[in-house]
Every structure is written in structure tokens, then in C-alpha cells.
Amino acid sequence: MLAKQALNTEIEPLESNDAVSEAIHSMVVLKVSSLPVVDDTTGKLLGQVTLEQLENAESDQLISDVELQQPVKIYYEQHIFEAARLMLQYEMRLLPVVDKEKTFIGYLGKTRVLESLTHMLNLAESGSVITIELKQRDFTLAEIVHLIESEGAKILGITVETPDIQAGVYEVSVKLNLRDISRVAATLRRHEYTVLTDSSAEMLGVDVETRADQLIKYMDM
Predict the structure, then answer these.
(1) Burial class of residue 217 in the structure, from the number of CB atoms within 10 Å of its CB (0-12 exposed, 13-18 middle, 19+ buried)
(2) How far is residue 55's CA from residue 139's CA, in Å, rounded to a whole number?
(3) Chain centroid offset of residue 75 CA
(4) Residue 77 gets which letter from DSSP?
(5) Domain extents in the chain
(6) CB-based contact 20:119 (threshold 8 Å)
(7) Fewer CB within 10 A of the end CB, N or C, for the chain?
(8) For the CBS domain, which residue ranges apply (predicted)?
(9) Interval 84-94: pLDDT, tens
């Protein structure tokens, strides 16, 4: 999914001639610590201001009187994964989206991004997750997929993490359509794969839909 497919166009950005007091009010209402500033005429993204900056300014000043920071933004044809990375890195609830000419066209909201990720990764589908540890030199998905499917399991999604970059270790989490994945885990271990999923998760499965809903609610607090 691309950024342009999840746009929120209802929230307006700040403009240069907006009063500082109005901008502070907008940030408080939206529960954000920064907002983008656009050109009053062209709508092009000029920069961003933070709540801390505005609180140190005079309330009767205009945004044009405040020094703008380099904006954190995403282009409308970039993937939603990049939006999630930026939001996590900069702890943002609203991420400005611009077109090729850097004209502001809307926001990506944190909840919408999380919902999109949930949909793309099939997190809302019932089933279980099995996690396998692989060293970089052994990293190949072909055999893992074959072994999993040989046990009659259907793969709903795959994610790859690198918890220990220096050691060159990957953690591959595979979402399956099965509640009981003990046979899949046993097959992988029999072929000398390191399965990190604990026994209770293997037997009972993981209610990913509930976990995803809880995560979205928590992140949107």
C-alpha cells in the first residue's frame, strides 16, 4: 500500500500567516508536538514548527516570525512501511504527505498506518505465529516455506527482523492459518532450524487480531 491510498485530507496544515496562539491550540487539540507549515498561496511544504518553539514565542506573533525546522515528510508514492518507520523514529501521530513538487496533500495518521499494516500482514486472520532464528549465511525462505506447507499449513504472512545485526542473526516470523502449530515446529526442528516460539504458543496459537487491536489502541493514546 502506498501513502496516497491512506490519506487523511480533513486536517489542515499551518500557514505562514496563522497566529502562534491558533497553532498552539491546533496542536493541543490534535495531541501532536509538531505541525507542518505550507505556503499560503502554493500549498508547498515550507517546514515544520514544534509546540516547544511556539510556547517560547509571543502569542500574538505569526508563524512567519518563527524559525521553521526541516520537515519530516513522506512522498505520496512511497510505501506505508516507510511511513511506519518515520513515525516510529520521530514519534509522530501525523505524518505530512507531499507530491513530487513538495505540495502538501494530506496526512497519514498513526492509527490508519497500523490498520494498513494489520491488513497487509494478515494480522486480523485467526491463526498462529511461529518464529525461526536464522544466521545470515543460512538465510533462505524456500526450504522453510516447503517444510511448513508439507504439514498442510497455509502461510498468511512473513516478517523478518534483525535483532542482532553484528551477529548476523535474523528472526523470521511466519503467520499460519493453524491454531496448533506443534507439528510444524517439530518438522522445522527435525531439519535443524532453531524455533523460538514457546510451547504454549505452539499448542494454543496466538490471537493476533486481539493483539493487533490492542496495539492500535495503545499507539493511538
Answers:
(1) exposed
(2) 51
(3) 15
(4) T
(5) 3-109, 121-217
(6) no
(7) C
(8) 7-66, 67-125
(9) 999 989 999 99
Size of the chain, expressed as the number of residues it contains: 221
Q: What superfamily in CATH does domain 3-109 come from?
A: CBS-domain (3.10.580.10)
Fold of 121-217: Alpha-Beta Plaits (3.30.70)
Segment 165-203, tens digit of pLDDT: 677 788 888 889 988 899 999 999 999 999 987 544 444
The pair phi, psi for residue 21, each rounded to 5°, is -60, -40
Q: Map grid coordinates 515550507 to a residue.
A: 46
**Averaged pLDDT, 23-38:** 96
Angle CA 101–28–214, to nearest 5: 90
- Determine contact, residues 73/97, Cβ cutoff 8 Å: yes
**Is the predicted pLDDT of residue 60 greater than 90, yes or no?**
no
Q: If you average pLDDT over residues 80-87, what whole number do you get?
A: 91
Containing 170, the helix (H) or strand (E) segment is strand 169-176
